[in-house]
Amino acid sequence: MAPALTSPRQIAVTEHDSVDKTRAAALRLLTQRPRSVLELKERLSQRFPTNAVDEVVSALATTSLLDDEAFARWWTESRTGSRPMSASMIARELAQKGIDGETVAVAIAEVDDAANARTLARKAVRSIPTDRYDRFARRLLGRLARRGYSSTVCRSIVQEAWSEVRGEAEGSGEDGSGL
Fold first, then answer.
1. Where are the alpha helices (DSSP H) in 62-179?
2. Residue 177 counted as domain residue
3. pLDDT tens-digit readout, 55-79
């Protein structure tokens, strides 16, 4: 059983220790990947007292270690990288992480949904059967839609991808008719 805290000095030392432990945990989380202010607060609040979390987050927010604008840019770049997704889906994720609307708008301003969908389609086509258009279209549309692309973008990208696949099949001597 822990001894009872009686003196103001013991209480102050305990609060200081709590802030130090909270700061150490926050820095560990930030070395893993950038985080939004809300995300960091939520994670730290699971283990530490609210007053220590507020103090640490406020201190980190005054530095470049905790910056919602930089986080939004980083998140957008990572989400348009190897497995691209739509601007609307990125915006939704950023909003869930506590990023304000204006910052989200700036972060996703240069996201090109058509180009990202095209990149995703080129990768996806490798694993989609190309023997029948209906199967090809259904599977590719599904992949694009799960990444948040609009139906208009999805349909045009499916048409482009089908044309490319058919063009390659014709160029290689295959007619793709299954005969």
1. 68-79, 87-96, 101-108, 113-125, 133-146, 151-171
2. no
3. 999 999 998 889 999 999 999 999 9
Tell me: do 35 and 74 sit in the same domain.
no
Structure tokens at 69: 């604008």
* Cα distance between the two ends of the chain: 81
Handedness of CA 141, 145, 147, 152 (dihedral sign): positive
Residues of the chain above pLDDT 90, percent = 71
pTM: 0.77
Residues 141 and 120 in one domain: yes
Q: Amino acid identity, residue 5? A: L
Give the range of the structural domain holding residue 127, as residue numbers without chain letter.
Answer: 113-171
Residue 5 included in any domain: no
**Contact at 8 Å (CB) between 144 and 158?**
yes
